[in-house]
């Protein structure tokens, strides 16, 4: 329970401040725990980042599936609507996972956490679409929206949803 609370606080801190900015002392304050308690659960700054990413991953998957309609086109459209809501509310600067990899390109633990997250999102989209053969193209549209959001905003989502509809209707 305490580990999850710390991970939630770390997620907020990294989301708001990025990965280079907050020192471990600042992260300790953001989590409202002692340095000893923070290091007990996350023994390095990289472990803190991974903990935050893992917490965010589960929160994101749960968020995408909230009030999801039946699987198929409606479910994938719902995922892109939820993606827009997520970007507006929680990720105005794009994907936190990709930002972590950009900040720590050579860190194997962070790379593994991001890779696992992305693979699970790809599989979820494939499953929800009922077209697992289209999991990768649909995932690429999802990732494109995340990357383009800071520049294109809602236009990125609308364009991706248009392509999702074409892809799912034309390949039936």
SSE arrangement:
Layout: H1 2-17, H2 24-31, H3 35-41, H4 45-65, H5 73-89, H6 96-103, H7 108-129, H8 135-152, H9 154-170
Helix pairs in contact: 1-4, 4-5, 4-7, 5-8, 5-9, 6-7, 7-8, 8-9
Q: Which terms summarize this structure?
A:
172 residues, 9 helices, Tetracycline Repressor, domain 2, elongated, single chain, mainly alpha
Number of strands: 0
Q: How much of the polypeptide forms β-strand, as a percent range?
A: under 5%
Distance between the first and last residues' Cα: 45 Å
The assembly state of the depicted protein chains is: single chain
What name goes with the CATH superfamily? Tetracycline Repressor, domain 2
Q: Classify the secondary structure makeup into a structural class.
A: mainly alpha
Helix content: over 70%
Largest sheet: none
CATH class: Mainly Alpha
CATH fold description: Tetracycline Repressor, domain 2
Nearest-integer average pLDDT: 94
How many domain units?
A: 1
Any idea what the CATH architecture is? Orthogonal Bundle
Shape: elongated
Contiguous runs where pLDDT drops below 50 for at least 5 residues: none
The arrangement of helices and strands along the chain is: HHHHHHHHH
Number of helices: 9
């Amino acid at each position: 329970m305490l580990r999850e609370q710390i991970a939630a606080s770390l997620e907020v801190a990294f989301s708001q401040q990025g990965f280079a900015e907050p020192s471990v002392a600042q992260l300790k304050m953001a989590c409202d725990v002692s340095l000893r308690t923070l290091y007990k659960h996350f023994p390095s700054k990289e472990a803190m980042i991974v903990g935050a990413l893992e917490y965010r991953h589960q929160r994101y998957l749960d968020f995408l599936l909230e009030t999801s309609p039946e699987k198929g086109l409606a479910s994938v459209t719902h995922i892109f609507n939820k993606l827009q809501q997520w970007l507006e509310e929680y990720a105005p600067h794009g994907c936190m996972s990709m930002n972590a990899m950009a900040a720590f390109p050579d860190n194997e633990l962070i790379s593994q956490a991001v890779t696992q997250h992305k693979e699970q999102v790809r599989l979820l989209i494939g499953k929800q679409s009922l077209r697992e053969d289209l999991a990768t193209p649909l995932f690429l549209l999802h990732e494109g929206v995340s990357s383009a959001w800071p520049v294109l905003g809602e236009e990125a989502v609308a364009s991706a949803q248009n392509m999702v509809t074409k892809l799912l209707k034309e390949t039936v």
